[in-house]
Structures are given as structure tokens and as C-alpha cells.
Design goal:
The chain is α+β, with helices and mostly antiparallel strands and 153 residues long. The chain is built from six helices and eight strands. A hairpin with a 6-residue loop joins strand 3 and strand 4.
Length: 153
């Protein structure tokens, strides 16, 4: 949907204000501005356009082709439990804001400036401190750089 990192802001009321360019792209790509805000770990916020989240729910509902269907089903149930534990459906308002659920806002330290990246079917939102830590932890190794070169990067 967009490339690079965008900066957003979480106000005192817990509303994430998306940059105008992100709001515009959401509006262009998705007719409705309904959103599912969630997390699987309580530290990073995932913002899914509702259409994308429904596709995730469909994949989680599918029977696994794995030989250990019970184990796979248990994992899917845990994923849904955590997503719903931290999650809430929201609608992007006219100013490009959406409410981050209070429990998630606290656990993910969502206040003030935040960093936003598009991750295939959702936006990943992190506090600036967590984003900087993640950037440090995800430095590319020499092997990674060689692999990137093989990919034409």
C-alpha cells in the first residue's frame, strides 16, 4: 500500500492519527474505512483494513492439511484468542484517526509519535522507542546482504 516508514501520532485520547497520504491510499484501495486494530504480542499494533482481516479469519478457519491437525487447530485458536484479546473493530474518522484499544495502548506504549510500516496486508505500528530497538535488532548480516544482491537489491 505504501513503502518506507511513515510517522503517525497517538493523542491523549488514544486515537492514532494516520498521515494524510496513508488515509488517502486506504480510501483508494478499500471502499470502506472499517479497520481491525490488534496485536499478537501486546507490543506491536497491527492495523488491518477489515477486508484483509476477514481473509486472515478465513485462513484461520480453514482445516489444516498438516498431519497434526489438532496441534495446528490449537495454534490457530491461540492466535485468534490473542488477536481478539487485544483487538477491536474501529472506523477511520474524517480526520484519519482510529482508536487504539486501551489495553493495547498501554501494553504497546502507544502515545505520542509512532512509526508505521505497511506489511503485506496490514500496517505495523510501533512506538518510536520500540521501532528503534527493532531496527537495531534487524540489522542485515553479510549473508543477508549477499542474498539481497542475488535478488537484485
Amino acid at each position: 500500500m505504501f513503502r518506507g516508514v511513515q510517522t503517525g501520532n497517538v493523542d491523549d485520547k488514544g486515537r492514532l492519527k494516520l498521515p494524510a497520504s496513508v488515509k488517502r491510499r486506504l480510501k483508494d484501495l478499500y471502499s470502506q474505512l472499517d479497520i481491525f486494530v490488534t496485536s499478537l504480542d501486546g507490543e506491536t499494533v497491527k492495523v488491518f483494513p477489515i477486508r484483509e482481516w476477514e481473509l486472515v479469519e478465513d485462513r484461520l478457519a480453514d482445516k489444516s492439511k498438516s498431519s497434526d491437525q489438532a496441534q495446528t487447530g490449537a495454534v490457530k485458536n491461540r492466535i485468534l484468542f490473542q488477536a481478539n484479546r487485544f483487538g477491536a473493530e474501529e472506523t477511520l474518522d474524517g480526520q484519519g484517526r482510529l482508536l487504539v484499544p486501551s489495553a493495547l495502548r498501554e501494553s504497546a506504549d502507544m502515545k505520542g509519535a509512532v512509526k508505521i510500516q505497511w506489511q503485506s496486508n496490514h500496517m505495523l505500528v510501533m512506538s518510536e522507542a520500540r521501532y528503534n530497538d527493532a531496527a537495531e535488532q534487524n540489522m542485515l548480516t553479510a549473508d543477508d546482504l549477499a542474498h539481497a544482491a542475488d535478488l537484485g537489491l
